[in-house]
Design goal:
mainly beta, 3-stranded antiparallel beta sheet
Length: 78
């Protein structure tokens, strides 16, 4: 259970292994906005949220902050 007003850092099951000439960016699904859940992707040693530099290789994490009500999540949830 993710409680309203708290911030959670969750390791994702996905990892990246980008080529040296490819960077990546992420944006939340529209359903997170409708549910009033703030999310953003974080990578090790990345200099910002939702942006991963060219050549990034490593794990991904998701910052989750429910704004209005608690959210129940399970492993493998999208």
């Amino acid at each position: 259970m993710l409680e309203r007003g708290c911030v959670y850092l969750v390791p994702l099951e996905e990892r990246l292994d980008l080529p040296l000439d490819v960077s990546a960016s992420a944006n939340p699904k529209s359903s997170t906005g409708r549910l009033d859940v703030f999310t953003r992707v974080i990578g090790d040693r990345a200099r910002g949220f939702d942006q991963l530099p060219a050549g990034y290789k490593g794990p991904l994490y998701l910052e989750i902050s429910p704004r209005t009500f608690p959210v129940l999540v399970r492993s493998g949830s999208r």
